[in-house]
Design goal:
By secondary structure, this protein is an alpha+beta fold. The protein has one domain. The protein has 8 helices and 5 strands; from the N terminus they run αβαβαββαβαααα. Strands 1-3-4-2-5 form a 5-stranded antiparallel sheet, with helices on one face. The longest helix has 18 residues. The radius of gyration is 19 Å and the shape is globular. It starts with a helix and ends in a 22-residue tail after the last helix.
């Protein structure tokens, strides 16, 4: 089992930098596994292209209808760090893209999240079983593990898109939307994406920056478990507004 001491050691050995707490909400996620740009049949610009379609025309790209995610919701920032360590140990056949984040979107509930990206419900269900067992052994059997479909922005625009499972009728792709996808593909110019976004090599400046943001995020929402990692107080993030979340999870 991953202990609090393991997390403290990771932070002090590889992540601690004086004066680096806080930062930009756009830099609060850490990826592991294969880059999403390398998925089968993926557009060269990846999710950036798909959101270009959605943001300009309000339609969900066809590729996103097979996107399913295993959603893990750590209860404290300590568990978020432990989940990152699990993601680095996790061996999957397709080395699925996975990431740890602090939730900053005002329309999404929850504080800490981990996602494993899958192609289709069958793969997602298989990986959920693997992850449940690993989390039970390494963190706690009480960490929630569920499935979700695509991005939260899509389900907000199209209620019912998020319905997922073998026992439900899942929302199908609207073929009339293809004209909008074709327009973007013929007219939009995308810069070359960074193929290292999903790399497994820890820990560069962006990863270090993100973990410091996590700690300040925890301080902001009243999750005092961060002191287990830092041993001292860290400043909160003035611009961040989140509901008060329960942070009563036990430590290993």
């Amino acid at each position: 089992m991953i202990t609090d001491e393991d997390v403290r050691h990771l932070f002090k050995a590889k992540l601690a930098k004086q004066g680096k707490y806080g930062g930009d909400p756009n830099s609060l996620q850490i990826f592991r596994g294969k880059s999403s740009l390398l998925w089968k049949d993926q557009h060269p610009a990846g999710c950036f292209r798909h959101f270009t379609v959605f943001n300009n025309f309000g339609v969900i790209p066809k590729y996103c209808f097979d996107c399913c995610k295993v959603l893990i919701e750590p209860r404290t920032v300590v568990e978020l760090f432990k989940l990152l360590m699990v993601f680095e140990m996790l061996e999957l056949t397709n080395d699925n893209t996975r990431k740890c984040i602090c939730e900053s979107r005002d329309f999404c509930s929850g504080a800490y999240k981990g996602f494993i990206y899958c192609r289709g419900v069958e793969e997602a269900n298989e990986i959920r079983g693997i992850v449940r067992e690993m989390l039970s052994n390494e963190i706690s059997p009480d960490v929630p593990v569920t499935l979700k479909r695509g991005c939260s922005e899509f389900e907000r625009a199209y209620p019912g898109y998020d319905r997922i499972g073998s026992d439900v009728v899942m929302m199908p792709y609207n073929k009339d939307w293809k004209v909008h996808e074709d327009f973007v593909d013929h007219n939009a110019v995308f810069s070359s994406p960074d193929f290292n976004v999903g790399a497994t090599a820890p820990y560069g400046p962006s990863e270090i920056f993100a973990t410091h943001y996590w700690l300040s995020y925890a301080a902001t929402i009243g999750d005092t478990s961060y002191r287990v990692i830092t041993g001292c107080a860290v400043p909160s993030i003035p611009q961040l507004r989140r509901p008060p979340f329960a942070t009563s999870a036990p430590h290993a």
